[in-house]
Specification:
By secondary structure, the chain is of the alpha+beta class. It is built from 2 helices and 6 strands, in the order βββαβββα. A hairpin with a 4-residue loop joins strand 5 and strand 6.
Length: 91
């Protein structure tokens, strides 16, 4: 299932699993202020604390004077463990 979060004028897009009811974001909208405070950048990490999910920021698109769309890719637990092991092995 695919939809929008919040009211219909909200721009955050997500997928929802019918079996487990888990929400996975595809993109989130951020203001210029939120972008500065969050320090978002392509390749960085975005944390959804409400749903306990981490994402890799795949790209950022400026869509207006004060709005950005942050495209996300979920980080699977196996990917996180592999990247942690690889980084600790190189130390």
């Amino acid at each position: 299932m695919r939809g929008y979060t919040g009211p219909t004028d909200e721009t955050d897009q997500y997928f929802s699993c019918d079996d487990c009811n888990k929400v996975t974001f595809e993109l989130v909208a951020k203001s210029a202020r939120e972008m500065r405070l969050g320090r978002f950048r392509a390749g960085g990490i975005y944390q959804d604390r409400v749903h306990h999910t981490r994402y890799q920021v795949s790209r950022i698109l400026k869509v207006g004077l004060n709005e950005y769309l942050v495209y996300l890719k979920p980080i699977v637990a196996n990917e996180l463990a592999t990247s942690s092991a690889g980084s600790s092995a190189s130390l």
